[in-house]
Amino acid sequence: MEKLLINVSGMSCQGCVRSVTAALTAVAGVAQVEVSLPSGQAAIRCDPSLVSVARLTEAIEAAGFEARPAV
Ligand SMILES: [Cu+2]
User: Fold this and answer.
1) Which of 15, 30, 66, 71 shows its CA 20 to 30 Å from the CA of 23?
2) How many A from CA of 2 to the centre of ligand 1?
């Protein structure tokens, strides 16, 4: 398992947090998702052979938010 951090902008409430969490959880190979509203970050534990950062940022953007991998 690999842990990835993605900066998410556009979240304003816990409903947004739930939307982002659901979008990421739906990606095959994602094991665990923690989204923080105060930090605007999503921490994702996933199987790197199944999941790419690009796939995760796409899922967040499809849910209506801006996503950028955190360094
Ligand atoms: Cu919201």
Assistant:
1) 71
2) 28
